[in-house]
């Protein structure tokens, strides 16, 4: 409770918290929007490789600028990410190694280079290393007001490119072969999209960190995909969910206790994915389970009706009383509640058949009609 | 002597690196060949969650129960990702990218919340502390052995026994899973066992190299071996050798430049990979470029000979059988035409008479071979 109050108290202090919330919303939204393309093009793990691979760029940017200069760090990260993307392309095209091996190689080797450079940077005077390690796990509280301008610029650039190339990007995402047949420069458009994804990763580092950035990229998109069926709606919803996860994570981590923002944001985003997978109408698991259970019940009921109808026809007696054990012998034991439901629906009715004391049923008029209909009019 | 070896810090650090590298490379060989390299990424992140949960439950880090318990988190990631992909609500790549960041985040948050009690901080999770592995020792048969070395040696023994014991089965499951399944070798189970061992190895290596650098030791040396040979046995042998060499060279360079030891060891695997990518005898970029050039030159020679043969002794000969015609009619750049003629002169296919080019006996024989490979005569 006190934590919540603290968070609310922080919220009403202008300045820092406003900056953090704005920044988190911006970064989460941008990552969410562009992540939609990574998910749809099945490049989620490319996002993971690129985000790990930005670490040496972050360190180099810091070493070159000599201070925590966001512009230099982001530029370094972007260059490292671009080099990583090119390396992955080179390895998959020039060798027989599979894509996942190329991703793993680039991810781990670039990250190792980053670790080495990190130790170099930490030996540097200036003590801004604290600023550097926030890029490992993300620290929204470290976002400065001046950083917002850079982020807004990147977001505007990404949004503008996406809007300008919307039709082309959409076609290349869903049907690259058709796009190629139309004469579109598919490789170029794919390159632009990958570049935009790299850009989203780079600016998102401050929020989620190099290790967890992949989740901020794909979790909002995976959640959004469950609710909507069009690309435009998915990108908007994904951006919204990303921003929501970003803000929530930033506020929770800002309440102190030494939590980095990245892990909190990721857990919030993961909860959104889980909820979406369970609850989304039509697609969601709960709907699916409900549908499957209804179908199972329906089939069980129809089998009972068919069995009763067949026995009635065979005995030339529409009111033929079928005994429980006979039914079980014919079609196995009906599931729990199946007979009760049929009785309630007026398909069958209980009858006594003395001197026997076991349960007996006969088909009602409705039951006969239904069984005949299910047989599809066969005589 | 053994005691002196065990007391040497440098020897223990290198030995730890070698043990991590060799254990990883043995398993990595089949993970890379089977296209499952990126699962290593998922596993090595997820075990952070397992390690902290096991610590909170048992207040112990080392010990077989702890290692296996923590490794369960790695398998949990694999199985959860598979289950998530089976719902078909998200694709396999997104499923992997959703599960392990969630577990990793939960692990990092648990570590941060228990920071006072746990002697791992979130930064060492990523970077490892191979320089300090010799601090924690146990006494075995009167000798003080670092716990990490003992654990890793045990893990290596298990990995080696598994890979050698199931060598044929692993090969079959990797290259022909359908046949393996038909013969009753359960290729899925084989790979799950491989991934379980990867999890155990990741846990054992965690203190030394952290969560991310471990990936380099598993994927990169086998991928390097893959570029150098086409036989699985040789690939595994090369991978093991390269992993050990990376550990040794990495330690030497790290000490020299005063940078992260684990980072430098992992980076060295990347250096070896880059060298192999460039210099490998068959598949290397340089070998392939040379091969391509030789092929292009051979094709040019054949084209030149065919061109001269077609026009020799015809009315158009004065115009066609000249260097000019190659440039103007075949649209070859001048340098290419000159190179082709020079090599033709060198190989005694062509002789020059003023501006005219004549085929020699050898050149004519080659042209006849081109136009009439079966030697049936052209009538």
Could you explain the architecture of this structure?
The complex is a heterodimer of chains A (379) and B (379). Chain A is mainly α and 379 residues long. Chain A has 2 domains: 2-274, ABC transporter involved in vitamin B12 uptake, BtuC; 287-374, Winged helix-like DNA-binding domain superfamily/Winged helix DNA-binding domain (Arc Repressor Mutant, subunit A, Orthogonal Bundle), CATH 1.10.10.10. Chain A has helices at residues 2-12, 16-40, 44-53, 55-65, 70-94, 99-122, 129-137, 145-164, 166-174, 176-181, 186-227, 231-254, 261-279, 285-314, 324-331, 338-344, 365-374, and strands at residues 322-323, 348-351, 360-363. Chain A has a 3-stranded antiparallel β-sheet with strand order 1-3-2. The model of chain A has no long low-confidence stretch (mean pLDDT 87). Chain B has helices spanning 2-7, 9-33, 37-58, 64-86, 92-113, 122-127, 147-165, 167-175, 177-182, 187-228, 232-257, 261-279, 285-311, 317-320, 323-328, 334-346, 361-371, and strands spanning 137-140, 143-146, 350-353, 356-359. With 379 residues, chain B is mostly helical. Chain B has 17 helices and 4 strands. Chain B has a two-stranded antiparallel ribbon. A two-stranded antiparallel ribbon of chain B has the order 3-4. In chain B, 75% of the residues lie in helices and 4% in strands. Chain B has 2 domains: 2-282, ABC transporter involved in vitamin B12 uptake, BtuC (Orthogonal Bundle); 286-371, Winged helix-like DNA-binding domain superfamily/Winged helix DNA-binding domain (Arc Repressor Mutant, subunit A), CATH 1.10.10.10.
């Amino acid at each position: 409770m006190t934590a919540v109050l603290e968070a609310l108290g922080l919220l009403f202090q202008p300045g820092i918290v406003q900056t953090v919330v704005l920044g988190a919303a911006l970064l989460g939204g941008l990552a969410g929007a562009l992540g939609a393309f990574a998910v749809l093009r099945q490049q989620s793990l490319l996002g993971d490789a690129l985000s790990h691979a930005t670490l040496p760029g972050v360190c180099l940017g810091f070493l070159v600028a000599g201070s925590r200069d966001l512009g230099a760090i982001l530029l370094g990260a972007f260059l490292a990410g671009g080099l990583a993307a090119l390396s992955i392309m080179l390895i998959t095209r020039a060798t027989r190694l599979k894509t996942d091996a190329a991703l793993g190689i680039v991810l781990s080797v670039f990250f190792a280079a980053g670790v080495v450079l990190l130790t170099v940077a930490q030996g540097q005077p200036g003590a801004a290393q604290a600023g550097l390690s926030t890029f490992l796990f993300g620290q929204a509280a470290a976002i400065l007001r001046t950083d917002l301008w850079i982020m807004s610029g990147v977001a505007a650039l990404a949004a503008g490119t996406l809007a300008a190339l919307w039709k082309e990007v959409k076609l290349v995402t869903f049907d690259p072969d058709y796009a190629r047949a139309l004469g579109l420069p598919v490789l170029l458009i794919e390159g632009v999209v990958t570049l935009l994804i790299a850009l989203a990763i780079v600016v998102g580092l401050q929020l989620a960190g190099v290790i967890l950035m992949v989740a901020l990229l794909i979790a909002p998109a995976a959640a959004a995909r469950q609710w909507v069926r069009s690309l435009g709606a998915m990108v908007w919803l994904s951006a919204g969910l990303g921003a929501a996860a970003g803000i929530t994570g930033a506020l929770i981590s800002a309440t102190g206790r030494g939590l980095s923002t990245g892990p909190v944001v990721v857990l919030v985003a993961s909860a959104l994915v889980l909820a979406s997978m369970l609850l989304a109408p039509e697609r969601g698991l709960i709907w699916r389970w409900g549908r499957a259970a209804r179908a199972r019940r329906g089939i069980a009921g129809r089998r009972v009706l068919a069995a009763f109808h067949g026995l009635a026809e065979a005995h030339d007696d529409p009111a033929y009383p079928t005994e429980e054990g006979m039914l079980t012998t014919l079609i196995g034991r009906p599931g729990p509640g199946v007979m009760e439901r049929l009785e309630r629906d007026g398909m069958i009715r209980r009858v006594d058949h003395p001197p026997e004391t076991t349960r007996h049923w006969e088909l009602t008029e409705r039951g006969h009609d239904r069984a005949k209909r299910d047989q599809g009019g066969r005589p | 002597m053994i005691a002196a070896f065990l007391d040497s810090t440098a020897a223990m650090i290198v030995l730890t690196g070698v043990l991590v590298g060799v254990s990883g490379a043995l398993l990595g060989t089949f993970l890379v060949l089977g296209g499952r390299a990126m699962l290593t990424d998922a596993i090595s992140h997820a075990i952070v969650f397992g390690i902290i949960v096991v610590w909170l439950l048992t207040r112990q880090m080392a010990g077989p129960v702890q290692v296996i318990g923590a490794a369960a988190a790695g398998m949990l990631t694999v199985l959860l990702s598979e289950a998530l992909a089976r719902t078909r609500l998200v694709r396999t790549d997104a499923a992997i990218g959703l599960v392990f960041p969630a577990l990793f985040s939960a692990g990092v948050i648990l570590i941060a919340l228990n920071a006072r009690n746990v002697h791992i901080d979130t930064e060492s999770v990523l970077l490892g502390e191979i320089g300090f592995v010799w601090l924690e020792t146990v006494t075995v048969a009167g000798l003080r052995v670092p716990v990490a070395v003992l654990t890793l040696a045990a893990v290596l023994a298990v990995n080696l026994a598994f890979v050698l014991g199931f060598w044929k089965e692993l090969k079959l499951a990797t290259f022909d899973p359908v046949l393996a399944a038909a013969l009753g070798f359960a290729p899925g189970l084989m790979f799950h066992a491989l991934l379980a061992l990867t999890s155990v190895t990741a846990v054992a290596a965690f203190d030394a190299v952290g969560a991310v650098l471990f990936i380099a030791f598993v994927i990169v040396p086998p991928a390097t071996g893959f570029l150098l040979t086409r036989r699985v046995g040789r690939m595994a042998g090369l991978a093991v050798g390269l992993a050990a060499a990376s550990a040794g060279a990495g330690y030497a360079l790290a000490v020299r430049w005063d940078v992260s030891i684990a980072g430098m060891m992992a980076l060295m695997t990347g250096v070896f990979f880059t060298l192999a990518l460039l210099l490998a005898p068959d598949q290397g970029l340089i070998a392939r470029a040379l091969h391509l050039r030789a092929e292009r030159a051979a094709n040019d020679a054949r084209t030149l000979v065919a061109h001269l043969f077609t026009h020799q002794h015809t009315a158009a000969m004065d115009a066609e059988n000249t260097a000019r015609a190659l440039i103007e009619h075949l649209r070859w750049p001048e340098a290419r035409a000159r190179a082709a003629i020079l090599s033709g002169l060198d190989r005694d296919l062509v002789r020059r008479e003023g501006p005219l080019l004549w085929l020699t006996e050898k050149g004519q024989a080659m042209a006849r071979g081109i136009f009439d490979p079966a030697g049936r005569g052209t009538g």
